[in-house]
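Cross-posting from the chemistry board since nobody answered there.

I work mostly on the small-molecule side, so proteins are not my area. We synthesized zinc ion and want a rough idea of how it might sit in this target. Sequence and SMILES are below. Is it possible to get a predicted 3D structure of the two together?
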Amino acid sequence: MALVEKTGVCRFCGQMKIIKVKENDEDPDFLNRVATQECNCPQAQEERRHEMKREAAGQWIENMLEHNEGAQKLCKEAVEAVYTGATGKVTVKTGKYTYSFEKNSKNDIVAKRSFSDTQEESF
Ligand SMILES: [Zn+2]
């Protein structure tokens, strides 16, 4: 399908932009999202960085927790909460692994996995 020019509004700075979308793309939310993705205002750029980091962190989580979808979901939510500043640090324990997520001074998400193999017996 040919692309046509429509207008969308950046949801951060309110700037109108001409965007190329499919003819049947009419949902204003979608048009505004495309305009926001293409906008160069600082907030839109920050949002894109956020999106890239979220994807990279999500990939890492999926690799580390390959067979544990519940923990994957939890860890992804942890990344989001840390990124937005809702929480400072989140620790998730599953089996002998501990995953922690926090932000460093450069605003990157630092994800760590540590393994603990303590042998404990009670007699
Ligand atoms: Zn903008």
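Reply from a structural biologist on the board:
Welcome over. Reading the output above for you: The chain has two domains: 3-40, 44-115. The mean pLDDT is 93. Happy to explain the token format if needed.
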